[in-house]
Structure formats: C-alpha cells, structure tokens
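A.,

Following up on our hallway conversation. Structure tokens first:
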C-alpha cells in the first residue's frame, strides 16, 4: 500500500506503507500496527514533529558497508533512516516556513 504525503509547500511524497509506518510512529501519528487512512501534521505542531524526526535520525545507526574492497551495486545498498526520512523532513520544514499543514493518506490496499 502507498502512503502519500502532500502539502502546498512542496511536491507530494510517495512511500510504501512499510517504510512510512516507522516514520509516522516516530512522529507520534501511528499507534499500534494499523495505519490510519489519513492524517495531518498541523503547522502549530510542526516544530515538535520535526524535532522528533531529527532526534530519531541522529541516534539511528547508519547501514554498514559489507566490504570496502568490493563496491556494492547502488540498488543493493541498504537504506537508512536518514535517507528514508530526508524527503519528508524537507517537506515538513518547508511547510513550517510557509505555515501550511502536511497531509498524509494511505491508498486502498486493493
């Protein structure tokens, strides 16, 4: 299932639900294992949301390289939280500057 993050502050961001769930959980928008159909990050709470995400990124481990001698194909490299969260964090910061909310919506699981 896809999760779409959208705001007037920037372009839409699409994520698979398996990648969006941890981010939503870090930012306090996911309780339990079930993903709500939609939600919103309000401008007045944006600073706290951004701080929570940045704190999680700061303490998250970076994916380790397996072998320095044999470079991995870029497609085969693991993606860390910092890389996964960057587009959403950028959208949240832009929305905070302009005073816009950030909406998220899960598509139907058909």
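Then the amino acids I'd put at each of the 110 positions:
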């Amino acid at each position: 299932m896809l999760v779409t993050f959208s705001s007037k502050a920037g372009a839409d961001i699409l994520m698979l639900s398996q990648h969006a769930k941890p981010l939503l959980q870090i930012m306090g928008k996911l309780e339990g294992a079930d993903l709500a159909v939609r939600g919103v990050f309000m401008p007045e709470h944006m600073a706290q949301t951004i701080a929570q995400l940045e704190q999680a990124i700061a303490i998250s481990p970076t994916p380790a390289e397996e072998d320095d001698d044999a470079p991995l194909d870029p497609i085969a490299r693991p993606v860390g939280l910092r890389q996964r969260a960057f587009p959403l964090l950028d959208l949240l910061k832009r929305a905070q500057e302009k005073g816009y909310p950030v909406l998220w919506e899960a598509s139907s699981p058909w």
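The mean pLDDT is 87. Curious whether your intuition agrees with the design.

B.
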